[in-house]
Amino acid sequence: MPVKDIENSIIVRILATQIPQLWEVVKFACTQADEVDKEDLPYYLNELLHALLSDKAQCFIRLGEDRTLLALISTRVMVDKITGKKYLFIQCLYSFKMVEDEVWKQDWSIILDFIKAEKCSYVSFNSRNERIWEITRMLGFKEKYRRFDYEVGGV
Predict the structure, then answer these.
(1) CA 22 – CA 14 distance, rounded (Å)
(2) Domains parsed from the chain with CATH numbers
(3) How far apart are CA 152 and CA 128, in angstroms?
(4) Rg (CA), the chain
């Protein structure tokens, strides 16, 4: 299901029925982008697969003109529990090779079309990756807050 052609590549939204065929690639990209700890992998992957198969999460891929996989984006349409506003949460943004900022801008225009169609008020994401921070700043994102975690041993 092509979404939009972009200079020698195409953005495709993967249907839930296509997820099993691409599961190994989705699994790799999402666990790399989300930096999932090994002990958390079973729960994380089970929940992700369930969300993708039930259309509670979406998966977009960018294919090169030779049909090679260039990038993968996993998203979820959610509702803010405080404001009740609908928003798009970008769970995973992963590129299999370095690309120019212009390509990310083109990808973003396609995701924006999806966001508008879903009537989302805003977009949110979490990442520890500085390159993702650079890309999203370039796209117009603003840092809203920082999250800090404290690990409690023996629990």
Answers:
(1) 9
(2) 2-138 (3.40.630.30)
(3) 20
(4) 16
Would you list the DSSP string of 76-126?
EEEE-TTT--EEEEEEEEEESS---HHHHHHHHHHHHHHHHHTT-SEEEE-
pTM of this prediction? Answer: 0.83
Take residue 39 and report the two structure tokens written for it.
């002990």
What token pair was written down for 143?
């840092």
Task: Inform me whether the pLDDT recorded for 1 exceeds 70.
Answer: no
Give the position of tokens 């939009």.
4
* Cα dihedral sign, 43-144-134-140: positive
Amino acid at site 92: C
124 pLDDT higher than 80: yes
For residue 2, pLDDT beyond 80: no
Burial classification of residue 65, based on how many CB atoms lie within 10 Å of its CB (0-12 exposed, 13-18 middle, 19 or more buried): exposed
Q: How far apart are CA 139 and CA 101, in angstroms?
A: 9
